[in-house]
């Protein structure tokens, strides 16, 4: 079965970890994840500048590893990201900001990518809140 | 169309659970995770409301979130792990998360 997963919460929210464990379990059962869409505060999970306390799990890094390892399509909503200061090099230059903090494997794109993923997938699963 | 309703907010801070119960279809089910598992705390109004509906209500709970909060599952609720969560999302036609 094909899943599209939308994440609305930052890496320090329990729901971000829940989304990650769900995604891992889905792949472990042989399902396909057509796209991971990071929306609203979920864009913080893609920031390369998140520093977790040493005695806590680094969910942002785990997302990065997961997407890289499985070569998944990790899309970050561009409007939500710009609003929250999550920029790739191109956007940092466009808006004359001092730094970029969106490393690979993340891609900035529009909300249309969520719509497209929902069309391609059998299920849309959203994670957010606490 | 059978829907799995996923809740993660505590039922003691907002009305998501009561709203969910109001719109719940006869084929639908609920999955409690995160702070929503507090709904099963013994001797609370929410636990009583849920237990009164057990005839028709299919109620699932994310095991590790209940365990983390030291909430014992009543016999009318079924615990699932993440593999079970995925299986539920396959079984039901839609998954509606009460964000």
UniProtKB/TrEMBL annotation, chain A:
Domain of life: Bacteria
GO CC entries: sulfurtransferase complex
InterPro entries, alphabetized: DsrEFH-like (IPR027396), Sulphur_relay_DsrE/F-like (IPR003787), Sulphur_relay_TusD/DsrE (IPR017463)
Compartments reported by the entry: Cytoplasm
Molecular function, one GO term: sulfur carrier activity
Keywords associated with the record: Cytoplasm, Transferase
GO biological process, one term: tRNA wobble position uridine thiolation
SUPFAM superfamilies: DsrEFH-like
Chief location: cytoplasm
Protein family per UniProt: Belongs to the DsrE/TusD family.
Record's protein name: tRNA 2-thiouridine synthesizing protein D
Provenance organism: Pseudomonas graminis
UniProtKB/TrEMBL annotation, chain B:
UniProt GO BP: tRNA wobble position uridine thiolation
GO molecular function: transferase activity
Gene3D superfamilies per UniProt: DsrEFH-like
Pfam family, one: DsrH
Keyword terms: Transferase
A Gene Ontology cellular-component term: sulfurtransferase complex
PANTHER family: PROTEIN TUSB (PTHR37526)
Name used for this protein in its record: Sulfurtransferase complex subunit TusB
Gene name, Swiss-Prot/TrEMBL: dsrH
């Amino acid at each position: 079965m094909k899943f599209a997963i939308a994440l609305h919460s930052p890496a320090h929210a329990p729901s971000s970890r829940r989304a990650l464990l769900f995604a891992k379990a889905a792949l472990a059962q042989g399902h396909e994840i057509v796209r991971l869409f990071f929306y609203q505060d979920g864009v913080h999970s893609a920031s390369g500048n998140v520093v977790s306390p040493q005695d806590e799990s680094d969910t942002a890094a785990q997302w990065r590893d997961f997407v890289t390892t499985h070569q998944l399509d990790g899309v970050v909503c561009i409007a939500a990201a710009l609003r929250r200061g999550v920029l790739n090099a191109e956007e940092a230059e466009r808006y004359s900001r001092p730094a970029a903090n969106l490393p690979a494997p993340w891609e900035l794109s529009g909300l249309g990518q969520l719509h497209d993923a929902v069309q391609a997938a059998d299920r849309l699963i959203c994670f957010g809140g606490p | 169309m059978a829907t799995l309703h996923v809740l993660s907010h505590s039922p003691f801070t907002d009305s998501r659970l009561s709203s969910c119960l109001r719109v719940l279809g006869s084929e639908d089910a609920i999955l409690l995770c995160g702070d929503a598992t507090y709904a099963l705390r013994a001797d609370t109004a929410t636990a009583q409301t849920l237990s009164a509906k057990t005839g028709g209500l299919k109620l699932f709970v994310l095991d590790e979130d209940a365990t983390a909060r030291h909430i014992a599952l009543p016999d009318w609720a079924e615990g699932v792990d993440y593999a079970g969560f995925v299986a539920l999302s396959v079984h039901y036609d839609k998954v509606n998360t009460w964000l």
